[in-house]
Amino acid sequence: MIMYNQTGEAVVMLKERSQSLRYRNVQRGSLKLYSRRLDQDGIPILSYFEEGLDYGVDWQEGTVWRTENSRIPDWSSHIFYGKNRFDQTGMSEFSNEPYTVYADYSYASLTPADNGKAGACAAILPACSARHEQREQISYVVYGDSISTGAEASEHRFAYSFRLYQHLQRLFLNSSVEYHMKAIGGETSRDGMNRLLRDVVPMKPQLVTLAYGMNDQNRMLPDRNDVPVHEYVSNIRKMIDTLKEQLEVDIILVTPCAPNPLWKFSSGEIGEYAEALRNLGREYNLPVADVYRLWMEEIEAGKSYESLLLNNINHPNDYGHSVYEQAFLKLLSE
């Protein structure tokens, strides 16, 4: 067994019910639960909770729960508690932020950690690697919807795209890596396809991450998704073809995370969009950062959607963005 450290894991707790941490076999005495807020200067202020007074722990199972008189916020006070097919239309206050606390702990695991390796990059990022060998500048363009813009991340440095950018800087030390945000909130793959030639191609990037699907799967009308899967595939295919025809560029396809299944406008079909993207990756021999698979592993491990989505709908919190980051690290470690 190898000991690992988990930091900044988001946890939302309900009444005195057990809430799973991501990992079991937590080292006894290692857990720190705390709230986090920013002062007027943007400096984080941490307030720690006490085991026994505020929460209990099952170290082997990796579960925590509120005590009867806990200072930890109780999610049963949330406006959407107990509501199926909830609708936030016209509402301004429905964030999970006031209910989110954070966990740092050590745990034992047989599974080795994934870390990006420069050798792996040569295989999956040939355009970037070629520029690196010549000590030339590498340009990275972020393309997608609001998740790619970093929506709901507490600071942009915690957004998955910026985390990837920082990894690229470490992997390609001989090159200057540029970071260009071209994602737009609210977009579907249809929107991305329509502006690709205008907003991305002229920049001549060496790397583009394509991350659409969350808004495509929305079912705002009762009889169909905003962008059906077959059209989604067509749109992504056209973007891939355009980039490959116009540029010498590496493309990473990014499967979406899963929205809250209790949200009124969730189609429940996000997995089909993820599978369609995997199929396109196989067809074009492109790397796929499979966020959806890791996201569902979080859910299967007992993490709640409330602990992963800060807006309780479809925007990951900082920890959720770290799941995206892990998808890229797994890719760069293969």
Automatic annotation (TrEMBL):
One of its GO terms (molecular function) is phosphatidylcholine lysophospholipase activity. Pfam families: Lipase_GDSL_2. Residues 142-321 form the SGNH hydrolase-type esterase domain. This is SGNH hydrolase-type esterase domain-containing protein.
